[in-house]
Amino acid sequence: MRDTLVVGHITTTHGIKGEVKVHPYTSNINRFSELNYVIIDGKNFNIENVKYQKDKVILKLENINSIEEACLYKNKELEVNREDGVKLDEGEYYIADIIGCKVYDENGEFIGEVFDYIETRGNDVYSVNYKGEELLIPVVEHIVPIIDVDNQKIIIKPLNTWL
C-alpha cells in the first residue's frame, strides 16, 4: 500500500491570488477543513484557507500567491500522508487502495484490474479492464464477496451469474 492517499485533483485556478479549484476524491467534501497541508509532487504545502463551491473545494496554499504560480499546479493530484487520512469504518476502503487491485472470479479466473471508481447513490462501482472492454462491477455483497486491499485482490461471483 502507498504511504500517501490522493484526496483530490486540481482542475484550475480560482481568482488572481493563487487559489486553486479542487475536485475532491472523498465522500465528505468538508474533510478539507480538517486538513493542515497537502502534498503536490512530493512537496508539502500548508493550507491557508478553504472555501467550498458546489461540489468543488477552493484552496489557498502557502507560497502560491498569483494566478501564474497557481497555473503551474493545474491537473496535479493532492495527497496526504496515510496516517492523516479519514478513519474508515469496517468495510470501507480508500479509493487509492482499490485502484490497481486485481479482480478474479470465485473460480480463480483473472477478470482484470480496477482502473476507476464510480460513487453512486445505491452502491459503488468498479471499472475493470476486461478483455479490452470496460466492465462495470457493482460493489454489492452478492456480486463482490471479498475485497482484500492488503493483497490487492478482489473476488467476484462468476460473470455468467450476474451479467
Structural class: mainly beta
Dominant shape: elongated
Mean pLDDT: 92
Instruction: Give the proportion of residues in helices.
Output: under 10%
Chain oligomer state: single chain
The helix/strand series, from N terminus to C terminus, equals: EEEEEHEHEEEEEE
Radius of gyration: 18 Å
- Into which percentage range does the β-strand content fall? over 45%
Give the number of helices: 2
- Tell me about the biggest sheet? 6 strands, antiparallel
- The strand order across the widest sheet is 3-4-5-2-1-6
In the predicted model, the low-confidence regions spanning at least 5 consecutive residues are none
Termini separation: 31 Å
- Compute the number of strand runs: 12
Your description of this structure?
This protein has about 160 residues and is mainly beta. About 5% of the residues lie in helices and about 45% in strands. The protein has 2 helices and 12 strands; from the N terminus they run E-E-E-E-E-H-E-H-E-E-E-E-E-E. The protein has helices spanning about 65-70, 95-100; strands at about 5-15, 20-25, 35-40, 45-55, 55-60, 75-80, 100-105, 110-120, 125-130, 135-140, 145-150, 155. A hairpin with a 4-residue loop joins strand 11 (about 145-150) and strand 12. The chain is elongated. The chain starts with a strand and ends in a 7-residue tail after the last strand.
What's a quick, concise take on this entry?
With 163 residues, this protein is mainly β.
Which labels suit this protein?
mainly beta, 2 helices, 47% strand, single chain, 163 residues
